[in-house]
Amino acid sequence: MKLLICLLALLGPWLAGAGLAQRRPPVIQDEAQVPAYSLPPLLVGQDGSPVRTRKDWEQKRRPELLRLFATHVYGHTPAWSGQVRWKTLQENPQALGGKATRREIALYFTPDDAGPQARLLLYLPNQRRGRVPAFVGLNFNGNHAVEADPTIALNPNWMNPWAENFIVNNRATERSRGCEARRWPADLVVGRGYALATLYYGDLDPDFDDGFQNGIHPLFYRAGQTRPDSAQWGSIGAWAWGLSRALDCLLADPAIDGKRVAVVGHSRLGKAALWAAAQDPRFGLVVSNNSGCGGAALSKRIFGETVGLINEQFPHWFCKNFQQYNYFEERLPVDQHQLLALMAPRPLYVASASEDLWADPRGEFLAAIHASPVYQLYGHQGLAGDMPPPNTPRATGRVGYHLRAGAHDMLAYDWEQYLNFADRVWGRRR
Ligand code: GTR
Q: Can you tell me whether residue 366 is helix, strand or coil?
């Protein structure tokens, strides 16, 4: 008996490991290995009834899908009875060599200034007639990383160390300034007549698993609650919420055209941008840049990053319920084409990068294709045809797509396509 116990103790970890290896299939990065899968229907309700009209979509199917994504993927966002307050802390009317007025605005989420807050960095084109359209998105490294100007406040909050962001002990340093400038070409955006607004995602919820003690989640706990329930929001939900609060502030600015505020995000922040726009119809255009798993990519293809892999590495991003689908994507009641369809009839642009197999470029393209029937319900052209080759944007309808040649990132090339798309769908002449 003793011998058997010893043997089990020795073999236990190996047996468990073997079990896990069995449940965790190798990462698929070859199209030929994508298993047969079937997507949940877009235009059939859970009760089996067909969705034929805009009214069916708006009154029944859309709310149903939004609920399913909240319950099974991102978590429900708790109701908020508060109101965001803001204060301009700094204004430079001659930023970007005189092309822009740049403001740093504090967004406060509680009645007192000491509570959780975020800083919005706003560039307004100085050459403008009337209200201007805008892009807003979260950044990875703080507003000081967007432009290497020492007068922008250095963000004091917790930060992830990445290559070339010069983070020491999870804090930004003077060398961190401008480290994310390539993703925020303010010159280009302002030069095209758009305002640009950005805020640091970690101001809303620092990106590590601390059981939701820091960030904004505790502001929403019921008496005695210490972490979100299984169907309540994780970090992506909080980041998305922050985008809506930034929008509250932009909509109050008389320089900004409130009907034309686009939300944009790269990678995990692209997931947040999509979830923000799904919940908040005030965003007038949506851009997903390399958002991948849990963003624009179809989960059921299990190509590149999968639900299991993302939840194991980032257990705080989604709701607890999502973890039921780790390595069982076929059981998911939704897939990401349905998330993209929640943007309709608002213009949607999805971008991938050719070397970014982890984010499954083809899965992102296919999701945009399969979202398109809802655009057709509105009489709009969505996205159609085969996947275009690299650097060949396909953007003649209300759903645009491109595959940039190169690595996982958001670069000037991507922005040029977003601006061209916004100009076209918003009828702006260049
Ligand atoms: C990766 C993650 C992706 C993507 C990316 C990013 O580690 O697996 O889902 O979000 O990070 O945000 O850059």
A: helix
